[in-house]
User: Which sequence fits this backbone?
């Protein structure tokens, strides 16, 4: 792939994603103040000392935003990687084994998808204790239904191809067929889907935190910061909008890159509109 | 699905009627399965209301007492059947937290939520379909690209961000819209509409981009199909081709898009209600989840799921009825 063929919009998207990850990884060195350090008055306006002002408890907003990147990106990434692992494995397994296993898994998937994700998450989180790994697991399991549907469709298409048939006749095992024949060929649509799932995970986590059911205070995360500062809105204090805009910006960046990836794969296939 | 072309089926039903009946049965089955999942599935999860409720230092005796009081010591199946029987007659039991009847609360709040979603749908559906058609008409030209970029950005915006942005500008800076969106029984329709202006605007903004992009994709896939090419080669005008060939086939995908987004609206109200402190189902459910008030959570969960399933079912039925290939079987 030549670098020059990447459109400027995709560069902007990738730069935005890189910025967020750099902020997350180097948070302790980049943030001017500590995550929970109270350093001033409540909701101070933007100033040289506090480029984004302070939050509802007098903590530096920029510092919390940078530390929040850590939590938000880690949880979203962990949840989307896990949901992919679950969804891809089960869907490929279903597509390769066929028969009763496929029927069972697909119907279960249909059932889970018949309940809106947020509602399902609310019901499950009401019953489970509030722990970080439980949150990640719930997000991953709920999201894996979408991955399962795509993965099964892709794998079904591929598994009737001649080279899979040949591998089967050669006497290769199911696992070998999944990893050596199907996965490499399914990679590019799955990569685009991974981007979408990650953007969705960021938005979903932020929504849960905003509703008070995601990351628990005093840990900083972007959705929770919106909730913390939302009382300021009626006094005209825009502190809640800054983490909100950050979430939106990251999601937009991911979507731009995914859009480019999808266009690229569809033009590779040589469609009529290519 | 469409391979069933035998004329005069054994039961004398047309294929359309048979498909619709199948779809109705499937939805009923799905609803029962969802109720099982929401009730029994939740019971199977680790974590117990009684011990969460009383905190770490609870004595086993106190836990046993509260379990008996809430009826948690009975076997799960009998409780499920009780709950389902009650739910079917509109009785969801009493809230653990407040002791009030859940049904009474839901009755007034469900109406509020549906009102919000319905107004948002009335505005967003025609707008989204219109914009989608414009995007197709000026495909790959500036307008289409502009719509594409703006809608890509819009689908990435979280509901609460849009909501607070609107509040900051329209109620705090300009003071022309109401916040919080308080409604109460006996309020006039005009007043009510004024109150929900911002929540509705938020929902419309959030859902419209999605709907528009899907409409565009649906129409484009029809326009590039073989029968449209044939129509073009046959030499009939573009307008006639669209009216006679594209439109009848486009109904089903567009109805699907609309229903999918209406279903999304029903869920979207949860966040929007919390942002605007609007007394609807969503806020009721979120509050109940925070205090682990299971009867309320389960009741709200099953109602949201039922509305969602119902909307999807209606969409499927409309697309079955609208499908020319099914209506005129060969």
Assistant:
């Amino acid at each position: 792939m030549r670098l020059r063929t990447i459109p400027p919009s995709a560069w902007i998207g990738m730069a935005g994603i890189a910025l967020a990850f750099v902020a997350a990884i180097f948070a302790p060195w980049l943030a001017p103040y500590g995550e929970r350090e109270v350093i001033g008055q409540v909701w101070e306006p933007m100033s040289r000392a506090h480029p984004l002002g302070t939050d509802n408890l007098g903590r530096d907003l920029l510092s919390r935003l940078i530390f929040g990147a850590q939590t938000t990106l880690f949880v979203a990434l962990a949840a989307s990687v896990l949901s992919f692992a679950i969804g891809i494995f089960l869907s490929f397994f279903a597509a390769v084994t066929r028969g009763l296993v496929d029927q069972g898994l697909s119907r279960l998937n249909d059932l889970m998808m018949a309940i809106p994700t947020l509602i399902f998450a609310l019901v499950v989180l009401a019953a489970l204790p509030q722990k970080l790994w439980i949150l990640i697991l719930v997000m991953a399991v709920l999201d894996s239904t979408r991955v399962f549907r795509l993965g099964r469709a892709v794998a079904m298409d591929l598994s009737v191809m001649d080279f899979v048939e040949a591998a089967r006749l050669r006497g290769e095992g199911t696992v070998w067929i999944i990893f050596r024949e199907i996965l490499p060929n399914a990679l590019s649509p799955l990569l685009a889907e991974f981007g979408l799932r990650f953007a969705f995970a960021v938005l979903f986590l932020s929504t849960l935190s905003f509703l008070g059911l995601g990351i628990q205070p005093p840990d900083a995360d972007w959705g929770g910061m919106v909730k913390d500062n939302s009382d300021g809105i009626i006094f005209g204090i825009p502190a809640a909008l800054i983490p909100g805009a950050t979430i939106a910006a990251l999601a937009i960046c991911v979507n731009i890159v995914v859009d480019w990836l999808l266009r690229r794969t569809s033009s590779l296939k040589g469609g009529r509109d290519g | 699905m469409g391979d069933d072309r035998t004329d005069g089926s054994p039961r004398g039903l047309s294929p359309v009627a048979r498909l619709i009946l199948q779809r109705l049965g499937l939805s009923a089955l799905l609803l029962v399965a969802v109720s099982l999942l929401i009730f029994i599935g939740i019971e199977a999860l680790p974590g117990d209301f009684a011990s969460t409720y009383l905190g770490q230092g609870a004595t086993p005796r106190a836990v046993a007492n509260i379990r008996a009081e809430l009826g948690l010591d009975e076997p799960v199946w009998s409780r499920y059947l009780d709950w389902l029987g009650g739910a079917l007659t509109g009785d969801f039991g009493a809230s653990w937290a407040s002791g009030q009847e859940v049904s009474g609360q839901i009755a007034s709040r469900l109406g509020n939520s549906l009102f919000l979603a319905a107004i948002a749908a009335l505005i967003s559906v025609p707008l989204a379909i219109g914009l989608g058609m414009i995007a197709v008409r000026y495909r790959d030209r500036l307008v289409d690209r502009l719509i594409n970029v703006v809608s890509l950005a819009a689908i990435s915006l979280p509901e609460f961000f849009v909501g607070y942005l609107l509040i900051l500008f329209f109620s705090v800076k300009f003071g022309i819209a109401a916040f919080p969106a308080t409604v109460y029984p006996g309020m006039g329709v005009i007043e009510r509409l004024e109150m929900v202006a911002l929540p509705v605007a938020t929902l419309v903004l959030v859902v419209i981009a999605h709907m528009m992009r899907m409409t565009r994709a649906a129409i484009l896939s029809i326009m590039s199909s073989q029968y449209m090419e044939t129509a073009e080669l046959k030499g009939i005008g573009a307008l006639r081709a669209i009216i006679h060939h594209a439109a009848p086939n486009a109904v089903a995908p567009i109805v699907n898009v609309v229903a999918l987004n209406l279903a999304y609206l029903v869920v979207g109200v949860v966040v929007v209600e919390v942002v605007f402190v609007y007394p609807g189902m969503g806020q009721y459910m979120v509050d109940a989840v925070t205090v682990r008030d299971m009867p309320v959570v389960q009741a709200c969960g099953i109602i949201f799921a039922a509305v969602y399933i119902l909307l999807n079912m209606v969409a499927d039925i409309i697309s079955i009825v609208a499908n020319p290939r099914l209506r005129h079987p060969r």
